[in-house]
Amino acid sequence: MTIDELQALAQKPCGNVQVKRAFLFACYTGLGMAEIRKLTWSRIKNERISLFREKNGEQVNNDLHPIAIKILGQPGNREELIFNCPSDPAVSKDLKRWVKEAGIEKNISFYCGRHTYAVNLLMGGNNLKTVADCMAQTSTKHTLKYLNFTDELKTKAIASLPEITLI
Q1: Which residues partner with 51 through β-bridges?
Q2: What's the pLDDT tens digit per position in 113-157?
Q3: Is 166 part of a structural domain of the chain?
Q4: Could you list the residue range(s) of the whole structural domain that residue 125 is in?
Q5: Which of 12, 81, 145, 158 has its CA 20 to 30 A from that of 74?
Q6: What does the alpha-carbon distance between residue 23 and residue 26 come to, in Å, rounded to a whole number?
């Protein structure tokens, strides 16, 4: 998702506030639904998140962006769940309706939050290894797929070539 699309979602109410919070949090942390469903306040400390990915067991130990911190809100008890999301089909239904109401004409799944995180990190000029580490991926091989969505990076790269004087 583009930053404009993210902004449109942030400004639009969603039928389920928990789905909105969880999806936007995924866009700023790269977490999947499996991690978000189990996320407790004990995993958040000093504006950092620390947990193990459900899919591969790799550790996530990252700073939290100020937007992610704002999405979290006031901390609760250490073992309290941060998000109270409905079933996967209900999340999908709420997400699709919310995206449509925001005027976004894309087929968006919850996984797109993780994808958005990766692409935005790459667009921010971060290297592939750093992005893979932020996403708790075991190698950059898995991160390469996100480069397909960053044609703008090629434009920036070419524009960054040094100038010379021709005579």
Answers
A1: 60
A2: 999 999 899 888 888 888 888 888 877 777 776 766 666 766 777
A3: no
A4: 3-159
A5: 12
A6: 5
